[in-house]
């Protein structure tokens, strides 16, 4: 096993670091997980020389941002607070406080809307100085360019507060904040700029629309394609940020290729993503947690399937995939094909057992399927009736045992009142049905054009009694408020046996990493940044429960067959082997802790400090 990288000493004690991201106290996408999870390791290395900068959106920030009051702000002596005080004196709406996450970093949030009266001038400057077009009908672009202008103002004031020999590093994530970089370079503001693209904007669009994206990458004319997808302003901002930064970085070797061909700059460094593993650690408890949450999934499965037919839950495996609904990019198409093949193999083999596969994603729906809600409600009534009968039989059996001289077990049927017998029979009668269990839990807005549903219909993978692979398509995220699952997503993951994420396009991919952190084996692909990183840095990764489907230079059929074989091997493991595998997965999670991966960021900052 590769030894983890040593925890680096704090670098450049004479430097300050500002990390700029749209997702600071603003949970809108995957970058939020990167920034938030990295905070404890960054604070450990940089301490009070570190601050985050982001846009202020009251609704998003209210639950996780604690602002300093005027007295607290006045008492602070660091340059970050000094810059905030100066901006306030100049009439800007800017606040400083604590992000209420592990590590409790200081953050500065700036309201982008205050710059709207100057939007015309800001957009004019972007065009005249940097040839960045900004149309009038896109509010996100307006927010982005307004925040970019305000971020530039803050960094200019902050740079003036930083007295040499102290130096300032500003690290921008993604095009939404990178728009400030060209103007900072043009005005020669004395700071060292790092820009990270987590996925090129154009790359994501092309991959969704071109099944041979990687083969065609070298021939892409970026401007024509950006216009085709109506994203030219954002792509132009991304390119300007990439070229304007002193140090340009991306998150995986896979996205390096995209950067070269779509942004025309070779990244200076690769910054792999990690997790704050401490948040997930359950030590000896993680096996018990698996059992506890698997029992909750059992309840859902009984309500969903047992109304029509039953199967042995002790011999049932729970598999799942999750993420944005990108049917091709996320590998949903490959997963379904492999499941159909696995279903056939299991039927032919005569092996015991059932596989239930959950698709957890987000799609427009009108409501939860009323029949599924009703089934759950009636099953709850069945359970209440059984518990009432259990209490009655228990009390009467205890009395009969103590009063009787006969050592034989009495007729238990005689210990139950006719009322409860009738209620038991009627409840079951109203619950049982001959209809097949539904594949999908909700009523979709556009059921006829849904790719997942169309595949299961074509493949007849529709939860027939004889199907050994059952499908549950849940087009909403799992949450404790859901009447179907009633638990957190992380709890649901712990209750499952295997996560399946064989993405075609995935710049990094947190979902398999989150499985590993919870002791759940995961399948990824060599076209995801995480899978590529695992292949390069984790020897014998399959022994650690991390499986990588080969999709580079492989046909869809070849990849589907390899995934089928992985699933086939997995379903043949016995319980003891699965427990051992979960132990191996959980013990390997430390490899992906930010404490070990932060060194890549610090090297990028060191490189930026060496460049003018």
Could you give the topology of this structure?
Layout lengths: L14 E6 L10 H16 L3 E6 L2 H4 L3 E3 L2 H6 L3 H11 L4 E6 L6 E5 L8 H12 L8 H23 L5 E7 H5 L2 H6 L5 E6 L3 H9 L3 H4 L5 H7 L3 H13 L2 E4 L2 H11 L5 E2 L15 H20 L10 E7 L9 H18 L4 E7 L4 E4 L1 H34 L14 H14 L10 E3 L6 H8 L10 E6 L14 H7 L2 E3 L9 H8 L4 E4 L3 H9 L8 E4 L6 H16 L3 H14 L5 H17 L2
Parallel strand pairs: 1-2, 1-6, 2-5, 6-7, 7-8, 8-9, 10-11, 10-15, 11-14, 15-16, 16-17
Antiparallel strand pairs: 3-4, 4-5, 12-13
Helix pairs in contact: 4-6, 11-12, 14-16, 14-19, 15-22, 16-17
Any descriptors?
612 residues; alpha/beta; Rossmann fold; nine-stranded mixed sheet; six-stranded parallel sheet; 24 helices; 17 strands
Explain how this protein is built.
The chain has 612 residues and is α/β, with parallel strands linked by helices. The chain folds into 3 domains: 277 residues, 3-Layer(aba) Sandwich (Rossmann fold), CATH 3.40.50; 245 residues, 3-Layer(aba) Sandwich (Rossmann fold); 60 residues. 48% of the residues lie in helices and 14% in strands. It is built from 24 helices and 17 strands. The strands form 3 sheets. It has a 9-stranded mixed β-sheet, sandwiched between helices. Strands 14-11-10-15-16-17 form a 6-stranded parallel β-sheet, sandwiched between helices. Strand 4 and strand 5 form a beta hairpin. Helix 15 packs across helix 22. The longest helix is centred in the middle third of the chain and has 34 residues. It is elongated, with a radius of gyration of 28 Å. The two termini are 39 Å apart.
């Amino acid at each position: 096993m590769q030894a983890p990288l040593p925890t680096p000493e704090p670098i450049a004690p004479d430097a300050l670091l500002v990390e700029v991201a749209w997702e600071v106290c603003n949970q809108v996408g995957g970058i939020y997980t990167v920034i938030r999870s990295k905070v404890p390791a960054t604070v450990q290395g940089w301490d009070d020389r570190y601050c985050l900068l982001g846009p202020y959106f009251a609704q998003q920030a209210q639950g996780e941002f604690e602002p300093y009051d005027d007295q607290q702000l006045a008492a602070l002596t660091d340059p970050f607070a000094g810059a905030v005080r100066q901006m306030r004196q100049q009439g800007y709406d800017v606040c400083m406080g604590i992000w209420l996450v592990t590590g409790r970093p200081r953050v500065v949030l700036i309201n982008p809307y205050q710059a709207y009266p100057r939007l015309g001038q800001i957009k004019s400057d972007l065009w005249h100085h940097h040839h960045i077009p900004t149309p009038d009908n896109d509010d996100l672009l307006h927010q982005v360019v307004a925040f970019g202008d305000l971020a530039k103002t803050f960094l200019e004031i902050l740079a003036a507060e930083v007295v040499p020999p102290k130096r300032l590093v500003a690290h921008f994530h993604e095009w939404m904040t990178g728009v400030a970089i060209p103007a900072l370079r043009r005005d020669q503001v004395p700071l060292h700029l790092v820009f990270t693209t987590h996925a090129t904007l154009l790359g994501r669009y092309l991959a969704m629309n071109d099944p041979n994206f990687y083969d065609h990458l070298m021939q892409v004319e970026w401007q024509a394609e950006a216009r085709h997808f109506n994203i030219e302003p954002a792509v132009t901002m991304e390119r300007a940020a990439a070229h304007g930064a002193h140090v340009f970085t991306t998150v995986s070797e896979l996205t390096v290729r995209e950067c070269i061909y779509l942004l025309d700059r070779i990244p200076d460094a690769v910054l792999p993503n990690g997790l704050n593993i401490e948040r997930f650690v359950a030590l000896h408890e993680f096996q018990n947690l698996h059992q506890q949450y698997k029992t909750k999934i059992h309840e859902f499965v009984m309500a969903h399937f047992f109304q029509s037919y039953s199967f042995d839950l002790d011999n049932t495996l729970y598999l799942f995939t999750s993420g944005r609904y990108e049917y091709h990019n996320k590998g949903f198409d490959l997963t379904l094909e492999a499941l159909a093949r696995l279903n056939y193999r299991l039927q032919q083999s005569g092996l015991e057992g059932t596989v239930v596969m959950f698709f957890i994603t987000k799609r427009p729906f009108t409501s939860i399927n009323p029949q599924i809600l009703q089934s759950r409600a009636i099953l709850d009534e069945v359970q209440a009736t059984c518990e009432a009968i259990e209490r009655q039989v228990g009390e009467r059996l205890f009395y009969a045992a103590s009063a009787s001289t006969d050592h034989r077990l009495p007729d238990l049927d005689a210990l139950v009142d006719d009322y409860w017998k009738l209620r038991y029979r009627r409840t079951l009668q109203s619950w049982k049905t001959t209809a097949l269990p539904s594949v999908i839990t909700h009523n979709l807005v556009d059921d006829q054009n849904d790719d997942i549903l169309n595949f299961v219909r074509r493949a007849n993978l529709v939860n027939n009694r004889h199907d050994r692979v059952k499908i549950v398509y849940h087009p909403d995220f799992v949450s404790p408020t859901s009447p179907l699952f009633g638990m957190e997503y992380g709890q649901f993951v712990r209750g499952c046996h295997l996560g399946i994420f064989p993405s075609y396009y995935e710049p990094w991919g947190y979902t398999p990493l989150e499985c590993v952190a919870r002791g759940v084996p995961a399948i990824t692909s060599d076209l995801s940044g995480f899978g590529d990183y695992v292949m390069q840095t984790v020897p014998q990764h399959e022994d650690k429960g991390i499986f990588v489907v080969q999709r580079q230079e492989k046909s869809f059929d070849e990849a589907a067959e390899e995934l089928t074989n992985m699933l086939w091997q997995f379903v043949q493991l016995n319980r003891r082997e699965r427990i051992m595998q979960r132990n191996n997965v959980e013990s390997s999670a430390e490899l992906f802790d930010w404490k070990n991966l932060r060194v890549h960021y610090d090297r990028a900052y060191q490189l930026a400090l060496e460049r003018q």
